[in-house]
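As noted in the main text, all predictions were made from sequence alone. Below is one such record, for Beta-ketoacyl-[acyl-carrier-protein] synthase III.
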Amino acid sequence: MSALAPAPGATHAAVLGIGAYRPERLVPNSEVVDAIDSSDEWIQQRSGIRTRRWAGPEESVQMMSVAASRIAIERAGLDARQIDCVIVATVSHLLQTPAVATAIAHELGTEQAAAFDISAACAGFCHGIAMASDLVRGGSARYVLVIGVERLTDILDLTDRGTAFIFADGAGAAVVGPSDTPGIAPVVWGSDGEQFDLIRQREDWRDVVGSDDRPGSGVMPHLVMQGNPVFRWASFAMAKIGQQALDRAGVSLDDLDVFVPHQANMRIIDAMARSMKLPEHVRIARDIADQGNTSAASIPLALDRMIEEGEARSGDTALLIAFGAGLAYAAQVITIP
Ligand SMILES: CC(C)(COP(=O)(O)OP(=O)(O)OC[C@H]1O[C@@H](n2cnc3c(N)ncnc32)[C@H](O)[C@@H]1OP(=O)(O)O)[C@@H](O)C(=O)NCCC(=O)NCCS
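Prediction:
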């Protein structure tokens, strides 16, 4: 039996740069309320959302991803040709094949980087960061681009009271590469498939549209959600996952500088912070107020804003927690680049 060459992985991995793309069009609650018999006051009180951004026709999944990625690559001090793997977390690229990641890798000018999509809904970005860290340390890639991107308006029913005011569009990206010190702690992740039905695309779309139109002919099975059980699960179960991620990182609450939970709902963010007993000094991402819930894009978008506004500084210790349909979740501690 021949001995195989060992994998030349890096000792440590870190996030080296983050970038974001927010669609041009800002949509206030007043534009959403009539179709769902709601009010600005109700939406703000129940979700904390004042406005959201919805993509225009030119702002495709690919276009938004490329824009966010170019910024992340530049901030990492790299050239696109150095990226050797592209992971795209999304549930709203409307074609199962080919992966949008290959087109993004090509448009960015990578040299035929490995490229694939992952489907873990709102938890997708943190899944991607965990995989990227392992790929870099395992020697399968040197610089991995992780993109969280959604155009959820393509699968949103604007007359559905449970979802129309929550979901939105956008893209965020991060470059993961080798580092002298650990910059991405081990992930705590998992799934609760018993609650598979709580957030999903409708299976009965034929009944809804009253015809045999299929995805691809312009009719997509839209998102539905049982808001109440999702709210309870996220508020309490995810606080425990956050604590486990801190434990795995060897970090105490006092060491933590920044908390970036998935931007699902402001009340969930507040409930998690209370359950985890976050100290006063920890700065909490609240991007949802004017960005809405952008699923896989929400964590990199929120991170990008905190960095831009000086709320997260280079070297800070940040806890990321992502959760959503599946139900799938992933949390890890990272060092802000
Ligand atoms: C969606 C959510 C805001 C709904 O709030 P809720 O308190 O659970 O709402 P309920 O469905 O129990 O309905 C409560 C009342 O509000 C009304 N209501 C529901 N949707 C409404 C809307 N969009 N506008 C106005 N009223 C609405 C209901 O009719 C009901 O009225 P009633 O008390 O007179 O019967 C809440 O469940 C939630 O935030 N869930 C988590 C969702 C989330 O973050 N998902 C993302 C995970 S990735």
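The chain has two domains: 12-179, 188-335. Residues 188-335 form a domain with the Peroxisomal Thiolase; Chain A, domain 1 fold (CATH 3.40.47.10). These features were considered when defining construct boundaries for the mutagenesis experiments described in Section 2.9.
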